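Researcher: Here's a chain I'd like modeled. Treat it as a single chain, no partners, no ligands.
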Amino acid sequence: MIATGEPHGSPVLFEGDTMTHRIERDSLGEKQVADERYYGIQTLRAVENFPVSGLRPWRAFVWSMAAIKHAAADVNCALGLLDGRIAGAISSAAAEVLAGGLQAEFVVDPFQAGAGTSHNMNMNEVLANRAIELLGGKKGDYQLVSPNDHVNMAQSTNDTIPTAIRLGCLWRLEELLGVLAALADSLAGKAAEFDDVLKSGRTHLQDAVPVRMGQEFGGYALAVRRDRERIARSADGLRQLGIGGTATGTGLNAHPEYSARMVVRLGELTGLRLQRAENLFESMQSQADAADFSGALRTAAVTLTRIANDFRLLSSGPSTGLDEIRLPAVQPGSSIMPGKVNPVLAEMLNQAMFHVQGCDHTVALAAQAGQLELNVMMPVIAHNLFEMMQVLIGAVRAFDEKCVRGITANREKAAGWLGRNAIVATALNPLIGYAAAAELVKAALQRNISIREAALERMGAGTLLNKQSGAKVTAQEVDAVLGDLRRLTEGGIQGVGSAG
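Model: Modeled as a single isolated chain. Structure tokens:
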């Protein structure tokens, strides 16, 4: 962690740092950098300038930048622009980072200078110093390997950071799609398991016509599948890379073949399906693809919030709520009320999805803040996109494995609520008409009797009439409609002619 209370201008120390230092210089002057650190002076300035959140960059952001540096070293070497020994050392250092090494060296707060220059230089310096070591030199000997001239060759923050955002999202895409597919499968499994459970439908949180619990869960499953498809479609826009545009999209300081070769090499290194952006200027001016992807994540969060809300309602009680489903008991629910068990996984999912939706709002605000040739708000776009994916993956996996797969149906309670539901009178509309059915509902609710009982009373008084023929309705006609409530969940017109 960053030490506090240090005098202005003193070196920033981290846990484990020694008091031995090297002197590094940049265009603003010189600074002491702890000997064991692979980052250099520009990273140190960023740490000092932006002690904002205490957060570090997400692994996706580090991985994607390392992939870019690895590819750039390989391509520039192949083009005859970078010495083979230096390129090999940079590529080897980048490969270490891709494999998870040197993670503690990436220390710049996500809330940093615009565009991501600090994050880019953090990577450049770490790879340069590790490459120097691999070549037998000492950290800080930038005559041997330069962060800017060698590691950053043919690059700018302005094309590497938007490329890294795209690669970082794609890196975890299959993991995200996988947990959503697993959740949809679990919900579909419950839909099949609960297909025989008849229950009251509810609209406006009031009684409605019957449904099967399996139909409810089937709706949840399809909603998650459709959100998964939206995310996959939106991710296709991220596959278009503007690498090679350098500072403004012109490609200044990059070989004419660099951009196309970079896309190919990045595909080889990452295993991702990639293509060169149609227009390098657009890919640097616009963060619309990131906003589109973020929006798809937000839509999934909206769906998951709704499902979690339903689970909390359906499991409410158990003695004084709906209690139609039972969620797995995974921990005690109260520090004061013995035996209380809460829907903690659904509550967790709600909170996580609220956070995802907040991150999306940040991405939207930052994406619209681009000006002319560049959007300088990219660091916060990157941080929030990677955070959204992390939270979605973790929350959905836990919700699926610890909650959905263990849900059971309380068939007795569902049947009990349905037996008291006067709104099944809706199925009598084709037989007796809306107004007469409404009178039955009113009578049933006032007297706490079933719709069939209310109908039999009206039949006994001779006041329940067939709206088509005007004849008195018989008990057989009523039973043809209400005798099998499962049929009401399958649609159609009940008990009237051949349509019944």
